[in-house]
Design a protein that fits this description.
Length: 298
C-alpha cells in the first residue's frame, strides 16, 4: 500500500530523513516508532502528499504521490499531530463541515459522534473542548470516510484510557476490513498493543523493521526492574545475583537489575528471603537511544 524508495527530506540544512526504503503492506497496522525529531511526522506528511521528497519516491497504492497527488490523496485519510479546528463551530458542526468537504454522507456524522464518544458534548463549541476531546474530534474527521489508507500522527495523544481503547477497537475493525493503518508513536506500550509491525527511527534513519512479537521480546528483555527496600545489604545483593540478576546497580535502599522475564520473580523473592522488605517495585523500558542500539545489533 505504501512504498518509499530512497526517500530523503531536507529542511534547509536539517537532514530530517535519510535514504529511507520502506514498504507497508495492505491490511496491516504499521507504526513508526521513535523519539521526537526522529523523522516520523516527516514521513507521514510525505505519504500524505503535504510535501515533496528532496529525493526519492513516495508511492501509495501504486500511485506516485508527486506525479498524481490528487489521485493518491483520494485513497488517504490523514490526522496531523496537532489538531486545529474551527473554534466557533460545535463539534457536530465541525464534523458536518468536513463531511461536506470529503463528500461523505451527512448521516455518517451521527455515527461518528457515537463512535468517538462525544454524544454528550457534540453541541458544545470546539473552543470549549479539552485537549483529549479535540483529539477525539480530529479522529472523528478521519473516520468520516472509509479509505484504503489511514495516516495517523500520534493518534492517542491526550486521549484518556477509554479513548485509547475506543481507538484500538476502531483500528482493529479497519484492519480486519482490509484497510492499512500507518501511524506514529513515541510510546512503546502503544506500539506493542496496536501494531502488527514496527519501524524504529532514530535521528532520521530507519534502524529496524520488525514484527511486533519479536520487538516486544527485545523490549521486555531490556526492561529494568527496580525495587526499593527498607535497607539494602550485601547479602541481598549477592542473593539477587545468584537468582539471575544481571546488569545490576544499587544504593542503600534501591536495587535495579535486568533479568530474563522468567527469572525476575526469583530475584525479587531472593531479596525478600535475604531480609529485604520491599516498599516499592518499578519497571522501566529502555530509552530510545538504548533501544535503537539494541535492535540495530541483531
Amino acid at each position: 500500500m505504501v512504498c518509499l524508495e530512497e526517500f530523503e527530506k531536507w529542511y534547509a540544512v536539517i537532514h530530517a530523513v535519510k535514504n529511507l526504503d520502506l514498504e507497508v503492506g495492505r491490511g496491516e497496522a504499521f507504526v513508526l516508532l521513535g523519539s521526537n525529531g526522529s523523522g516520523k511526522s516527516t514521513i507521514l506528511r510525505a505519504v500524505a502528499g503535504l510535501h515533496a521528497p528532496s529525493s526519492g519516491r513516495v508511492i501509495v497504492d501504486g500511485i506516485d504521490v508527486a506525479e498524481d497527488p490528487l489521485a493518491a490523496r483520494g485513497r488517504i485519510a490523514y490526522l496531523p499531530q496537532r489538531v486545529v479546528l474551527p473554534d466557533l463551530l460545535t463539534g457536530r458542526e465541525v464534523l458536518s463541515f468536513y463531511a461536506g468537504l470529503k463528500g461523505a454522507d451527512q448521516r455518517r456524522v451521527g455515527e461518528v459522534i457515537e463512535l468517538i464518544g462525544l454524544d454528550e458534548d457534540a453541541d458544545r463549541f470546539a473552543r470549549e473542548y479539552s485537549g483529549g476531546m479535540l483529539q477525539r474530534l480530529g479522529l472523528g474527521i478521519t473516520f468520516l470516510c472509509d479509505v484504503p489508507l489511514y495516516l495517523l500522527d500520534e493518534p492517542t495523544l491526550n486521549l484518556d484510557p477509554g479513548g485509547v481503547e475506543q481507538f484500538r477497537r476502531w483500528m482493529e475493525d479497519r484492519v480486519a476490513g482490509g484497510a492499512t493503518v500507518l501511524f506514529t508513536s513515541h510510546i512503546l506500550q502503544e506500539a506493542l498493543r496496536l501494531a502488527d509491525r514496527v519501524a524504529v527511527m532514530a535521528e532520521g534513519e530507519l534502524v529496524k523493521v520488525e514484527e511486533v512479537s519479536g520487538f516486544r521480546n527485545r523490549v521486555v528483555g531490556a526492561t529494568t526492574v527496580s525495587v526499593v527496600v527498607d535497607r539494602l545489604t550485601e547479602t541481598m545483593v549477592e542473593a539477587a545475583r545468584e537468582a539471575g540478576a544481571e546488569e545490576a546497580s544499587w544504593n542503600d535502599k534501591s536495587y535495579s537489575f535486568r533479568a530474563p522475564p522468567e527469572k525476575r520473580q526469583a530475584v525479587i523473592r531472593a531479596i525478600e528471603k535475604a531480609g529485604g522488605f520491599i516498599e516499592e517495585l518499578h519497571t522501566e523500558p529502555p530509552n530510545w537511544e538504548s533501544l535503537a542500539q539494541l535492535v540495530s545489533e541483531r
